[in-house]
Amino acid sequence: MKQIIQANKDRYIQELQDFLRIPSISAMGEHQDDVRAAAEWLANALEGIGMENVEIVETKRHPIVYADWLHAEGQPTVLVYGHYDVQPADPVELWDTPAFEPVIRNHKLYARGATDDKGQLFLHIKALETLMEQYGKLPVNVKFCVEGEEEIASPNLPPFIEEHKEKLAADAVLISDTSFIEEGQPAICTSLRGALAMELSVETANSDLHSGVYGGGVPNAVHSLVKLLDSFHDDQGKIAVEGFYEGVPEPTEALKEEVASIPFRKEKTKKDLALEEYFGEEGFTFQERTGIRPTLEINGVTGGFQGEGIKTIVPSKASAKISCRLVGEQNPQKIFEDINRHIEAYKPVGARLSLQQSVTANPVTLDSSNTMIQKAADAYEKVYGVRPLYPKEGGSIPIVEVFSRVLQSPVVLMGFGLPSENLHAPNEHFHLDNYLNGMETVGEYLLSLNKES
Amino acid sequence: MKQIIQANKDRYIQELQDFLRIPSISAMGEHQDDVRAAAEWLANALEGIGMENVEIVETKRHPIVYADWLHAEGQPTVLVYGHYDVQPADPVELWDTPAFEPVIRNHKLYARGATDDKGQLFLHIKALETLMEQYGKLPVNVKFCVEGEEEIASPNLPPFIEEHKEKLAADAVLISDTSFIEEGQPAICTSLRGALAMELSVETANSDLHSGVYGGGVPNAVHSLVKLLDSFHDDQGKIAVEGFYEGVPEPTEALKEEVASIPFRKEKTKKDLALEEYFGEEGFTFQERTGIRPTLEINGVTGGFQGEGIKTIVPSKASAKISCRLVGEQNPQKIFEDINRHIEAYKPVGARLSLQQSVTANPVTLDSSNTMIQKAADAYEKVYGVRPLYPKEGGSIPIVEVFSRVLQSPVVLMGFGLPSENLHAPNEHFHLDNYLNGMETVGEYLLSLNKES
């Protein structure tokens, strides 16, 4: 593997740069054609390395790219998932070089999507190309299922998976869309929190009112909203919504030790972020609070006059964005109903309430002792000389739970990013060492899955 | 009076239209020259009717216009206050005709400033002109002190009054910048609440953080802010800031009766404003809550992500605009300190707080039995056939308390507006009947103050 990757690395990097030049921003209507162009580019790349049955599958918005190579009779099948869409580049003025003009500085490739997820996706294609060149075939059966809507919460992929579960059936789902703990320390994420996003709106009158004339005598929409928002937590940082913690497992000592084993530079982070203090649910560490405990965060709030100076009004409308991270057996739909009951119970006098639900994702836990994950760990060790850790991620990749549940396959989150690579932020980049070593790791992994190996 | 006003009314209305054409918006830097043009126009108008010592007095921002006529030896002196600046016209698209192109529809004059306060100010000048024409002189001594900064909270007038209290000395301060109870029912306001405006800002980190990575483990600026904002009131609508109610008088039965005597269409207002319920301090009526009780209102709140869709962040900054209405002996500076102590006592973990003070005004109560007010009531009765009521206004005109305290003179709030005239809103207008009857009322009032009358 290594020699072929070394011999071809310039071309492998140039091809990724071509992929990164396509501004496939799924959230922005004006980039609709670019998203499609990225799907077509990807389909061509898959065909180019010998993948078969390459399809661009239409959805209500951005297409899914499917491909397979199923000639490894009697061997396991691996389904590779990734996404070819990217986040918007805003704020563009904070980029040192334009987001869609990839450049290499200090052996890092700078561009929107470099690490999330075009670079991490494309290294799989180049790994297969390398295997093909070395062996004339692949050691296992491989399927690709790549979406263009990950950054807009994958609205069309779950039904596609449900409808095509036989076509997508695999012995493992392989995903590179996560990060190392830090440089030199690989990680296979084995837990992702679920998610529930909502918007809570309050209305108290049909227009803002003069505070001199009505102030003190009519309900104030901002007062009503802050009362509700403040009721979601108690003073110990616990979520005060009845029923919220149902299905949240009490962490075992073993799990606590596993969580504590993941390095975390507490004082440095505190200083870097200018935090006065850490704060969260009483009785848990920072790593537990952010990795294996559920949360309810207000992501934003808006209401009444917000300009310069003063406007003495009683606001009639106010709203807040709220999102929960869920763990264990928590179900987003049930939590939504719990929160709905909570706001009705705490409804301030004269407030008309509305709670709109948007993203939902079930939490998922993966068993690190599964063979498919242990072989991935072996591959990392072979290439990097270090065994990966198994962190519990606080974030959510909703589709992981869907693959796990619908296909009944182990999901292997074999990430090659670094936490410092500015994903979703200006100056996103990807370390080229990890791009090339990632190819080798994926290649070694697939080779190790071959039953005759 | 009446005949001369009738004979000249077309010209009196045309001149007011000229005044209204000047977009003297004090809050907007680009209208600086227009504000000055309005001051000059006003100075000319005062000179034109025979006022003397007309001065345009420079301040740090917009000038004060002074003028006097002091030839009524042995007679009382009346100081007329008003303002020649106006509110911005936003939202301009909601005006039926342009804000600075005055038009008459249904005997109402539509323009920004028509009722607040150019129309109500200019009727004094036309009243004096009428008296001059009828008698060749004025029945009392008259001074004018007109500012161009009322709509930006009069930053430069209080020091001017302090420095020139002999020059401005008067037996009564006459102000027309308030409203009737409703058409046909005049009012002399005898109480104005004080005011204190503030901005409360919370910061918890140097940037917004990813809620998947940090959520649940670091302070959230919006959580911190809503906790503080929610702590300002208890569930009975009382303000929970220690010391806040010091100096607030317990209303006497007589005062309660006086307040209750002011008509208020409770059910109609509820329907018009689409209120579900009235709400306020327990134990008080709507009229008491909005007229003679102090308040603390959140005028606006902002923090974190407020766009379309979802952004799963832990916000690092949030802020709120807050304003209080004060009564009795409440002192804005002391209340500010009380609130500062309150937020320090309730300071959420990890929150950096800042409380900035802006507008302050002391509350003021005027004695309705004062001769200067009773003679004004007689003048209303003579012209309108109805005695005025004496409402307690919930709003604040900060300068009233300054005139009252510094000049030690009774202030007579002889308003000619109607509550329905859209002040500070699109389609502001002024009833021409009240413009012309207002001149006659002012004329009759000044005649009644002459000791030989």
From TrEMBL, chains A, B:
<keyword id="KW-0224">Dipeptidase</keyword>
<dbReference type="InterPro" id="IPR051458">
    <property type="entry name" value="Cyt/Met_Dipeptidase"/>
</dbReference>
<protein>
    <submittedName>
        <fullName>Dipeptidase</fullName>
        <ecNumber>3.4.13.-</ecNumber>
    </submittedName>
</protein>
<keyword id="KW-0378">Hydrolase</keyword>
<dbReference type="InterPro" id="IPR002933">
    <property type="entry name" value="Peptidase_M20"/>
</dbReference>
<feature type="domain" description="Peptidase M20 dimerisation">
    <location>
        <begin position="191"/>
        <end position="348"/>
    </location>
</feature>
<dbReference type="InterPro" id="IPR011650">
    <property type="entry name" value="Peptidase_M20_dimer"/>
</dbReference>
<dbReference type="GO" id="GO:0016805">
    <property type="term" value="F:dipeptidase activity"/>
</dbReference>
<keyword id="KW-0645">Protease</keyword>
<keyword id="KW-0479">Metal-binding</keyword>
<dbReference type="Pfam" id="PF07687">
    <property type="entry name" value="M20_dimer"/>
</dbReference>
<dbReference type="Pfam" id="PF01546">
    <property type="entry name" value="Peptidase_M20"/>
</dbReference>
